[in-house]
Design a protein that fits this description.
CATH class: Alpha Beta
Number of domains: 1
Radius of gyration: 25 Å
Number of strands: 7
Number of helices: 3
Shape: extended
CATH architecture: 2-Layer Sandwich
C-alpha cells in the first residue's frame, strides 16, 4: 500500500474526488464524475510525481442503478495500481468521454465496453461493435439483458437445459462387451 500515492492523489485531485481514496493491498481506488474524467486522467498522466503512463484496462460496470467506467492505470513511480471509477452514468443514455486523447489503444477497450454495455464514448473515432455482430440489438453484460429462455423462467422453474448435467457419450472402445469395457479388462494372471 503506497501511502505517499494516497497523499499525492488527495492533494492533486481533491476537488474531483467523490469520497475518500481507498487502498487495499497493491490497489488504490478513486471515484470521480464522468465529466471530470478528461481532467483527472490528464493530471494522472502528465504530473511528474504521478506519471500514470499505462492504461492497462478499461471496462464498463452495470450496478443495476447506474453505469460506471473503470480505468486501471500503472505508473513507474508507485508500486500500486490505480483504479479510477467514473460513477453516476445514466443507464438510459450511458455516455462518457473517450480516453483516446491520451492512450490511442483505449479505442479498442472503449469499443468492447460499448459492445457489451452500450456506453457511448464521446470522442472515440471508431465506436462500433467489436465482439457482437454489427446488427445485434442488445448489450449482453447489462443487468437488464435477458437470455432467450428467461421470459418463461420463474425462480422455482429449475435449471435451464444448458445447465443440466449430462452423461458423456460412451466411446466405442468402452462399449459393453468391447476390449475396453472395464468389466472385461482384468489384470493379467501372474
Amino acid at each position: 500500500m503506497d501511502r505517499t500515492l494516497k497523499a499525492r492523489l488527495e492533494i492533486r485531485l481533491g476537488t474531483f474526488l467523490h469520497g475518500a481514496v481507498r487502498q487495499r493491498g497493491d490497489e488504490t481506488e478513486i471515484r470521480v464524475a464522468p465529466g471530470d474524467v478528461p481532467q483527472v486522467l490528464t493530471i494522472l498522466h502528465d504530473s511528474i510525481d504521478l506519471r500514470f503512463e499505462i492504461l492497462a484496462d478499461l471496462t464498463g460496470v452495470d450496478t443495476g442503478n447506474e453505469m460506471q467506467v473503470v480505468y486501471h492505470l500503472w505508473s513507474p513511480s508507485s508500486p500500486d495500481w490505480l483504479r479510477v471509477v467514473a460513477e453516476g452514468i445514466s443507464r438510459e443514455d450511458p455516455r462518457a468521454p473517450s480516453a483516446t486523447f491520451l492512450w490511442t489503444g483505449a479505442e479498442w477497450l472503449e469499443r468492447e465496453a460499448y459492445d457489451m454495455f452500450g456506453i457511448v464514448f464521446e470522442g472515440n473515432r471508431d465506436l462500433r461493435r467489436i465482439l457482437m455482430p454489427a446488427d445485434y440489438m442488445s448489450f449482453p453484460l447489462r443487468k437488464d439483458f435477458l437470455l432467450a429462455d428467461d421470459a418463461s423462467r420463474s425462480p422455482g422453474a429449475g435449471v435451464r437445459h444448458s445447465e443440466r448435467a449430462s452423461r458423456p457419450a460412451t466411446l466405442a472402445h468402452d462399449a459393453p462387451g468391447s476390449p475396453g469395457d472395464p468389466a472385461i479388462r482384468r489384470a493379467p494372471a501372474s
